[in-house]
Amino acid sequence: MRILKILCLLLLTSQLAVATDARLAKTLEALTPQQRTVLYQYGTLRLYATAAQADSFRLRQQYLLPDLTPEDAATLATELMTNTTLVYSLQQPSRLQALRGVFTASRLLLGLAALVAAYALIHLLYSYWSRCRDWLVRYLSPLFRRLFSPRMLTWQLLLIGIAGIFLGPRIPDIVLRTLLVHAGLFLLWAQLTAITTREYNIRRYMREIKYSLRSGEDPWLAFKTVSLPAIAISAGIAWVMQHCPDPWYPYEVTVPMLAGLFTLPPLRRLEIPLSRVLLPFPHTVADEEQRTAAYVTVSLFIWVGLLFLPVIMMPSLLVLTFLLIIALLLLSIAKLTRCGMRNYSWLQAVTLVFLCSGVLAGAQLGILVLSWMALGGIVLYVLIKYWEIPALLGWSWKDRKALGLLGMAALIWAIAALFRYRPEWFVFF
């Protein structure tokens, strides 16, 4: 009986604490900027001055905080001191402030120009490279027949790409540095693929890549045409990460590493056993869906392994989480997978378990973005099933799209209201 009383007391205490936290959170959200400033000053005095001075300040400013008790004021002041970052802002316009804004806009525009230029250069190479090369071969062949032959030109561009990767990080200008590094990475991938496929036209070796991925007869073909260039690109990005301060390369390295891993011969031979993790029940499934299930299974194993590393590799974890959310949401759609009702039900369970695990893992590791991504995946899952489940039960949305959109709007509103009025249910920190 005593143990039962103690358990009841602990449960009541925890419920009171949750209710108090929710009330203080709503109070903090409703405070005006002037009230938050006063509470921040009060928290500063409590931390760096005497208790008498802090209480005297609070009493003088009590007319601004009439609804707060001393305990609530102390709690909110501590919260603001812990989670507030002071931002320097000038109250009156000045020449220095205007120049500072111009320089900030200039840096942002330079970064945007670098990304747009890199995309434009890659697009131009994709669109016009065959014509330029054919023109050079046709009209300058008497002089440069060997120098500009397709094979020699491929090796020359490969050397140019390697030079761009190694010399790019030394350039101080962010626009030229980003442009040169990404152009070098593209040339490295394109020319290595041309060498491994022995096709020197980009459209032709793209067909070779698709054929090697779809054909399961020769696992070494996919290793040669896909895995080797992907491993080389991963090594190039890893080298750039060590010598360049730009923050986006740790995020870019994840995709080529996964491409190189998926096309290794041992994994190609294990595609059917690996796909049984997501499709455990016997059913006729297309080869592409089976291969996708195997890739997602390997990615899930890698994701779990990243969580247990001594040092969390946050960029790779976030990119892999995003890719897994997209892949599992697509696999959980019955019309895309066509794997039978039992496999469909199992995929729903796996998807929900992964999304909930992402929320909990982000809370446990202190990675707020990871929790947000998983919560966003849960919301997308709910919206997808809103449209899919009635169709599976025989309901047709063909002539009821307006009604369906109205219902989806109500569902989104209900989710937003739940986030607003029960925020403690979604805070795991």
TrEMBL record:
Domain of life: Bacteria
Signal peptide: 1-19
Swiss-Prot/TrEMBL keywords: Membrane, Signal, Transmembrane, Transmembrane helix
Transmembrane parts of this sequence: 108-129, 150-167, 179-200, 221-242, 318-337, 349-382, 402-421
Name the record gives this protein: DUF4271 domain-containing protein
